[in-house]
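[Protein data]
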Amino acid sequence: MFIALEIIAFIFIFHTNDFQKSVYLRDMASISGNTYQVTTSIADYFRLKSTNAELSSENNRLRNELELLLHEKECRKIDSISPVCNNINIRYINAKVVYSSIYKLQNFIVIDRGINDGIEADMGVVSNNAVVGVVQYATEHYAVVLPLINIKQRLSAKIEKDNQLGTITWNGVNAKSVQMEEIPRHATPEIGDTVVTSGYSAIFPEGYLIGTIAQEECSPGSTFFEIDIDLATNFSTLTYVSVVAYNTKQEINTILNKLPNER
């Protein structure tokens, strides 16, 4: 009974008091606006995920078209009936990250593409033209990637300005930086220098961004520099990647395996 009387009194005040009516309408508009804003934000979030997937797919399509154009350009310089001209060397396969770790010494990434999609071990993985890691093994529908931030990862790289070769490793300390080894004392690395893939394998093309030199030091008596590199890839937000597929990978590896071993 009391609640009913309260409701009747509220309706009476609302209809007879313009001030109370305006306050009520203002508050309701504010609540409705906030509710709409939250609802819109949620909808925008899911639309954004869909948009990111579409953009990633479009980037891969453009990369593949660029490879085709570059391939055709090279073929105009040589005999058009050459076997080389019948086989595009590189293509890119789009994938989504379904699992990732960044706080371990041996971090791993799992992507939603596998053998059925043309993925196999020792394929390079990139995101926005920056290096992510290398495929370690694949099942029918998924693949495990060994990222740069894994203490077992080693990758051939170079300082872009002078092509000075080195090796990328990770000391397990910071997921935002890696180390570059085997840069000799006579080299001239500087803070801010760009470090990219060397292209000396069938894993990555030349020139994919790894990061920039954040710290370099060559201690007295040391043969090599100690170099820290700020990574271009943000592993904490990584969502979409591209897998680099060399069509001539087997041939390249066959040649490399015939090289004499160092003694």
Summary: The chain has two domains: 1-84, 89-257.
